[in-house]
Amino acid sequence: MIKTFIVEDDPMVAEFNRRYLEKINGFELVGIASSFDEALPIIENEEINLILLDIYMPGENGWSLLSKIRGLGKGIDVIIITAACDKQSIKNGLRFGAVDYLIKPFEFGRFKAALTSYQEEQILINNQEKLNQNDLDNIIHHKEQQILSGFEIPKGLTKSTLIKVWEKIVEKKNDFFSTDELAQLVGISRVSMRKYLFFLTEINILETEVVYGAIGRPVYMHRINNEDYTLINKYIGSP
């Protein structure tokens, strides 16, 4: 069994990762931690083969924890699971030896592919005293291809509609806007618009605030949080 440790500060995401992990044979959950300080003693004292690591956490972030793990000299592999999708973050992941890099939000299929691929590599390596060049090349090239091909639009969203949504958001500049308002401008349903805005929030391009009126339900207001448009261009292409 591959002993796996989840480090994730969002309880809902941690729970999804736990449920996903339970669906894949051959993995055993060692524990869940929500911060650097909570994770480090467990890493130091427990037998762990694989960590599913978030980057954005309160206090010291995931990069600090990954650096500490490498400094300890423990043979622990790491799959990064994060909304950080900029070029520098991905380079950091490769530099620290991440075996895969999953960009939030992602589907179960991508999660399963990452873990089963890792599992197959471990079986191949552990069952052979020596690897030939072809086997080694397949492992290394497959791993790099998985990490560097990460900028995919989630299932259920389309590139053409995402472009329309983004164009209307850019017109708003730094002004807040509601889901209903943007849905009317783009010409899609409120339910569909929520999916696009959730995706843009998850990859840290939008920020969201909840506004409570005198009566009625709360209204979710959004605006651009990250003006580095290279992030969105990874998904929709450069203008």
UniProtKB/TrEMBL annotation:
Pfam families: Response_reg. Keywords: Activator, Cytoplasm, DNA-binding, Phosphoprotein, Transcription, Transcription regulation, Two-component regulatory system. The modification 4-aspartylphosphate is found at D54. The keyword Translocase does not apply. Residues 3-119 form the Response regulatory domain. It comes from the Bacteria. The keyword Cytoplasm applies. Gene3D superfamilies: 3.40.50.2300. It is found in: Cytoplasm. Coiled coil: none annotated. PANTHER family: TRANSCRIPTIONAL REGULATORY PROTEIN DCUR-RELATED, TRANSCRIPTIONAL REGULATORY PROTEIN DPIA. This is CitB family two-component system response regulator MalR.
